[in-house]
Amino acid sequence: MSVKKQILVTGGTGYIGSHTVVELLAAGYEPIIVDNLSNSSAKIIDQIEKITGVVPVFHHLDLCDEKATRDFIDNHPAISGVIHFAAFKAVGESVAEPLKYYKNNFYSLTNLLTACAERPVNFVFSSSCTVYGQPNHLPVAEDAPVQPAESPYGNTKQVAEEILRDTAKVSKNLNIISLRYFNPVGAHASALIGELPLGIPQNLVPFITQTAIGKRESLTVFGDDYNTPDGSCIRDYIHVVDLAKAHVASLRALELNKISNYEVFNIGTGKGSSVLEVIKAFERVSGEKLNYTIGSRRPGDIEQIWGEVKKAEQILGWKAELGLEDMMRSAWAWEEYLVEHPIV
Ligand code: NAD
Ligand code: WQD
Predict the structure, then answer these.
(1) Distance (Å) of CA 229 to CA 6, 8, 132, 272
(2) Which of 215, 227, 301, 324 has most ligand 2 atoms within 8 Å of its beta carbon, as the pocket-test mutant?
(3) The CATH classification of domain 6-185+237-268+307-321, taken from the options 3.40.50.720, 3.40.50.300, 1.10.260.40, 3.90.1150.10
(4) Is the pTM of the predicted complex or chain greater than 0.85?
């Protein structure tokens, strides 16, 4: 009987983490979730069970607690891989409360790396395309320069990448992949898990679905005077299920020793969509007419970005399979599910 590989999933009850747990189970891994539930609900464990038939192992743990993190890792000697999602992620809040972000995102990372230092571990980290700022060339490739961060949140991703690169360099045990996600959206096809924004959503797609369901009155499109074909900003939206699969592909690549030391990968579709195109795709698949107005630009927004995604295809054997309509259809099904089954 083959023993399943144990993978620690920090932030595993969160948006991307929960979808990744589902894909890890499907791929024959044994995920072990740790989360302090600061931005997620323990009910997600039941939702994962409904999808997979498996109750994933869950531990309530704050990774900022150094001793508890070390004890946890010491008590789980079979863990061979770590996917580190746990972090705070709200850009605006990070500007208002920088120390909250620096503390949480750095203490959790350094505690985890310190706890894992003595054993061979394959490590996958959640980075972000935010490290590129507004790139000079599109699509933006992994070797494009990192630009000064627009926010403390963005800075935590830039510095975390440096921490990981420096640590991998001197560690015999750790091989590390940083995945630079573009804009994750959508939900699982079952509509049993999806994004659960606290309060007023800051991101486009949850704002669209909450407006269409009647929780918000109207969406403001932040600017239609950019130098883009329809004047609205362009992003590389990536379906969360495709993104989850990129983590499984990353673990496999690490297990097969395709990565030594440290590598970064863009995880996107390689295709840009404008805000107005996203709204149109939503209206097409939902049959709803979205109430929106054109407003002024949002400070700090970049005009346009989409990723060069060849490196992930060549080395990880991963590529996005789902398109914008799949993203909007699943996001809408999840919003409709929440009406009957609120998760708080
Ligand atoms: P999320 O908030 O849904 O999930 C993060 C989880 O981490 C939450 O469940 C939260 O409770 C947990 N957590 C936070 N601090 C913790 C701590 N100290 N100890 C234990 N658990 C802790 O966010 P998400 O959208 O799933 O994002 C996951 C990761 O991907 C984050 O690192 C985020 O910065 C990164 N990322 C997200 C996006 C995006 O748009 N969603 C884009 C690029 C990168
Ligand atoms: C997308 C587009 C807005 C809301 C953020 C973080 C980034 C990364 C992903 C973590 C933009 C427009 C939005 C609205 C709008 N996260 N918009 N009206 O800003 O690309 O990236 O999330 O790493 O770091 O900055 O995503 O969803 O906020 O915006 O017109 O009410 O939608 O201007 O063009 P963004 P977003």
Answers:
(1) 47, 43, 22, 11
(2) 301
(3) 3.40.50.720
(4) yes
